[in-house]
Design brief:
about 475 residues; alpha/beta; Aspartate Aminotransferase, domain 2; Aspartate Aminotransferase, domain 1; seven-stranded mixed sheet; four-stranded antiparallel sheet; about 40% helix
Length: about 475
């Protein structure tokens, strides 16, 4: 397949943008290019075919199973996209007076209220543009709070060894030192190690529950109690909320601040470069530190109000607003019982696949999981030479996107599978059969599996070279 630059023919063109109907104005000549950019010169049919060809090479939830663990790549109802495309939403401008965008402000307020109800938090901001952005926001709020009460010596954030990689990165960006605590044999936080890690210099804990091996930590109330008794705050990474929404709330587990992902849990598409949204919620004592503004009702109208000790703006205006519209539409459509049922089905699907595969594959933790589970392929690799990477590549030939590989790091030769609640039993059975056939291939024809995939344009690129020496321009 050729690049558009290779399809380019000098003088060939197409008209996608109409003639400008306002006077051209360039405020500063230094912003002008010295030369005209070398953009491809192609016809409309060439452009259409190019992007259609790219689409056919892409894999998404619209054309196949996508069990990417810890990422919740689920199908999102089209009605939410339609509602977000309403002219009243797409035509609103963030600089309009509050009186002119009452409907949009109502969306923000309603979504914040519903997210608070689902999570057990008291206040929310929709500003953060993604999950990691939300983590950074929450940690800055923790830092601001500690500074406000004169406890600046608290400079350590405790992070379990099974955490998402963004957790320690976000804490470091916020100026904290990272303390890792190990998991126990059951895949949950080692309580004794946690007790030894806490002290007067601990600012808080970052934790995902269910954790990254798909287990709900049975000691969660003891974990948050240990941190609180040491004077720290508890941060909840809401990446796995898809397993527990409508059933249990982070606020009731003892968490003080959290983020969640509208682009994973609440019907905004995940992947493809965005836009995402990582709203941050908190308990009342932290609300005055929230970034941006929140919506309040005053004199019968909705207005934006900035919190008294706001950490500032984490993004322009009210975040990715149309993503919020999709999320609110999704919550309205499901209702309280539907939100709960979504979690129950996600857990059911994951356990169905885990049990159906556990006679040949080794679950990393052979117990009831939540929305995702991890397989340990160490035995398979030792006996056949076929790795988790080989198994994942083999799935591509079945039209299935590979699950997450080699994560979390506490499980070697890991395949992390999250089927989500939107997949049918028939789809799960097809995936189970594919994984069973891959298992047989590993023992009967390992070289075939090591060369997979066989059905793609490119089989196995040199991923190390691509990471170390990327070609980022034509």
């Amino acid at each position: 397949m050729k690049l558009l630059n290779e399809e380019s023919v000098k003088g060939r063109s197409l008209s996608l943008i109409g003639k400008c109907d306002v006077e051209e104005y360039i405020p500063y000549s230094r912003f002008l290019r010295d030369e005209v950019p070398e953009l491809p010169q192609v016809s409309e049919v060439t452009l259409s075919r190019h992007f259609s060809a790219l689409e056919r090479r892409s894999h998404g939830v619209n054309n196949g199973f996508y069990p990417l663990g810890s990422c919740t790549m689920k199908y999102n109802p089209a009605v939410d996209e339609e509602i977000a495309a309403f002219e009243g939403f797409t035509g609103a401008h963030p600089l309009q007076d509050d009186s002119e965008v009452q409907g949009s402000l109502q969306v923000i307020k309603d979504l914040e209220d519903r997210l608070s109800a689902i999570t057990g938090m008291d206040a929310f901001t929709l500003q953060p543009a993604a999950g990691a952005h939300g983590e950074f926001t929450g940690l800055l709020m923790i830092k601001a709070y500690l500074e406000s009460i004169g406890e600046t010596e608290r400079n350590k954030i405790i992070v379990p060894d099974s955490a998402h990689g963004t957790n320690p990165a976000s804490a470091a960006m916020a100026g904290f030192n990272i303390v890792n605590v190990p998991s126990g044999p059951d895949g949950c936080v080692d309580l004794e190690a946690l007790r030894q890690a806490v002290g007067s210099d601990v600012a808080g804990l970052m934790l995902t529950n269910p954790n990254t091996v798909g287990l709900f930590d049975k000691n969660i109330l003891e974990i948050t109690r240990i941190i609180h008794e040491a004077g720290g705050l508890c941060y909840y990474d809401g990446a796995n909320l898809n397993a527990v929404m409508g059933i249990v709330r982070p606020g009731d587990m003892g968490f003080d601040v959290m983020h969640l992902n509208l682009h994973k849990t609440f019907a905004a598409p995940h992947g493809g470069g965005g836009p995402g949204s990582g709203p941050v919620g908190c308990k009342e004592f932290l609300a005055e530190f929230l970034p941006g503004s929140h919506v309040e009702e005053k004199d019968g109208a909705l207005v934006r109000v900035r919190p008294a000790k706001s950490i500032g703006d984490m993004r322009s205006f009210d975040g990715n607003f149309l993503v919020a519209v999709k999320a609110l539409s999704y919550i309205w459509m499901l209702g309280a019982e539907g939100v709960k049922e979504a979690s129950q089905n996600a857990v059911l699907n994951a356990n169905y696949m885990r049990v159906k595969l556990s006679d040949i594959y080794t679950p990393a933790y052979d117990t009831t999981c939540m929305h995702e589970f991890v397989l340990n392929l160490q035995k398979l690799k030792a006996e056949t030479g076929c790795s988790a990477l080989d198994a994942a590549k083999g799935l591509i030939d079945y039209g299935i996107h590979p699950p997450t590989m080699y994560f979390p790091l506490i499980v070697h030769e890991a395949l992390m599978i999250e089927p989500t609640e939107t997949e049918t039993k028939e789809t799960l059975d097809e995936a189970i059969n594919a994984l069973r056939e891959i298992y047989d291939k590993a023992y009967n024809d390992p070289e075939y599996l090591k060369e997979a995939p066989h059905s793609t344009v490119i089989g196995r690129p040199d991923e190390v070279a691509a990471a170390r020496h990327p070609i980022v321009h034509w």
